Structures are given as structure tokens and as C-alpha cells.
Amino acid sequence: MINRIIAAFQRPEDGWDPIRPQYAAAYAREHGEEADETLVDALEAWIGGFAGKHVLDLGSGPGQYAVAFARRGALVTCHDISRSYLQIAREKAQASCVADRMRFSIGYMDDALCLAPGPWDLVFNRVCWYYAFDDRSFAELIYRLIAPGGYGYIDTHNASFRREDLSLSSAVRTWMNSHLGLKIGHPHPPRGRIEQLLKRHPFKRLDADYSSPGNDRIRLEKPEGAST
């Protein structure tokens, strides 16, 4: 609720951008030059190929994964809150000659059902889950965005990620989110929470990978004939 109230006064469609262009450019150089092709290969095999598939990169950042999906024939929408990131993603799309297979949507991730409703053959959400207003409602949003017979991929830092580097304020907010379910700002969710929230929805398949101590990775498959 607190995050939603704050968001009412910070609207990206009105020009507000939480990411300065200089930071976006530096982040893109360090983390967003190229997608992990091993992950892209695994996703392609899992969903039966990208060609002609409608993909939502939900929280796309500088767009390296969206471009990688488009290179393989997907029709991709980059949805992000930052104009700075989306501009970088547009430039990547042009440089890779896939601009005709990419669309761009600006807004909070939680507003994607209105701004990029789909439904989508693949919803891809990588290292940005914690920017959602509320974990429970965001899990429901993911379910609703995925088309019947479609797929979801989530990779999120959990509360163990770089815990020793947290400021006192961040540590308190992380504890409140983990133990009281009160989310203020963008604390990482406790390990295993996202899997449990997603299990409340009738997915055909849900595979959780906890091999990385600081990340929860989840693959989803929605049954054919399921509601959106």
C-alpha cells in the first residue's frame, strides 16, 4: 500500500524517471551488453522455439535479453519504468536490426496488465521482481499475463543477496518485508516466498532452482485452457 501511494506521485508517463541517463549508460556497459546465451538457449528449447512467439520482457532494463529473443524470431515488448533504459534498448534493437520485432512500453511493472496486456507466450522477469509494489499481487499479475499454454521465467535476488552490504535502513525494511509482510521501497523477498505465492495459482508446472544462494529462479508453465 505504501509503495502504491508513493507511485501515485511518481508517474513515468509524466516524465518521471528513477534512473539517471548516466547511471543507465554505466549499468548497460557493465551488465547489459549481451544476454547470457546459455540461458537464452535453455529458454528457447523449453518453450519450443522463439520464432513467432510473443514475449514480454517485464522490467527489461537496457534490453539485452529482449534483443536476444528478437534475434531468434520472437515479437518482443520491453516494459520498463525508465525512459533511459528504454532508449538504450531502442538503440540496441536498431543496431541489431530487430527494431521491427520490438515494441516499448513505459510504466510500473505492476501496471503491465493495462499497458502491455498480452497475454504472452513467455513472460520474462529477471532481477527486478523486488521493484513490484507487493509480492502477492505481482505473483497474481504474472499468472494473468501468461497466455494459456504459455511460460514464465523469473530470476530474483532474495533477502540473502549481499546482505552484509545492506545499510541499516535497508536491513530494517528487508526484515519487515520478510517477517511482517510489510513492503516499503524495494527489499528483496525472503528465499522461497515467490515459489509459495506462485503455487497459489494453477500452473501446470512450476520448477524452482535454489542452486544460487542469493537468487531464486523459477520456471512456469500455464495449462492450456486456463483463464487469464
TrEMBL record:
Key word Cytoplasm present: no
Keywords annotated in UniProt: Methyltransferase, Transferase
GO molecular function, one term: methyltransferase activity
Positions of the UniProt region annotated as Disordered: 207-228
Classification via InterPro entries: Methyltransf_25, SAM-dependent_MTases_sf
Ranges of biased composition (kind: Basic and acidic residues): 216-228
Pfam families registered for this protein in UniProt: Methyltransf_25 (PF13649)
Highest rank taxon of the organism: Bacteria
SUPFAM superfamilies, A to Z: S-adenosyl-L-methionine-dependent methyltransferases
One GO BP annotation of this record: methylation
Domain Methyltransferase, first and last residues per copy: 55-150
Keyword Transport attributed: no
Protein name: Methyltransferase family protein
Native species: Pseudorhodoferax soli
